[in-house]
Amino acid sequence: MGSLKHTGKETQENKIMSDRLTALSPHVSIITLNVNGLNSPIKRHRVAGWIKEQDPTICCLQETHLSPKDKHRLRVKGWRTILQANNEQKKAGVAILISDKVDFKAKQIKKDKEGQYIMIKGTLHQEDITLINIYAPNTGAPKFVKQLLIELKEDINNNTIIVGDLNTPLTPMDRTS
């Protein structure tokens, strides 16, 4: 059996075909990260680089520690849609960045004044989607999450994606230092 050799032209044709398939049947990738504060320019630069490298459709951040007027600090080239919930004390804070490469239209946004959650209802490639990004408090997290999901019950359906830092240990071992 002879070895297969790929020419530059074949590779280019494969890429064109791949781009066409992506346009026909787009997939969605979502990344989520607790950034533990974005007030340092160096950290913001590193997070922006990580987002560009991962190249997700949607990026969800928790614990941004930004104030409501700090939206400009979340700017990442290629992710113009930035939705966030923050509190005035620069604690907690959640954000959702949506790639410019996708057809996203927000229809409804719900968020709290403490910066613990943001919910976005909209369409992504003409499909309904609800995205909830949660940063649960360190104490009483299970109760907080349960209460929040009860409050948002009317908005949650089979097109809902819930992400975030739920601050909930999965096993008793996770509770130890």
Automatic annotation (TrEMBL):
Keywords from the UniProt entry: DNA damage, DNA recombination, DNA repair, Hydrolase, Magnesium, Manganese, Metal-binding
EC number assigned by the record: 3.1.11.2
Cofactor(s) essential for the protein: Mg(2+); Mn(2+)
Reactions that this protein is recorded to catalyse: Exonucleolytic cleavage in the 3'- to 5'-direction to yield nucleoside 5'-phosphates
GO BP terms: base-excision repair; DNA recombination
Record SUPFAM superfamilies: DNase I-like
Pfam families: Exo_endo_phos
Positions bound to Mg(2+): N34, E63, D165, N167
Similarity annotation: Belongs to the DNA repair enzymes AP/ExoA family.
Protein name as catalogued: exodeoxyribonuclease III
Species this chain originates from: Equus caballus
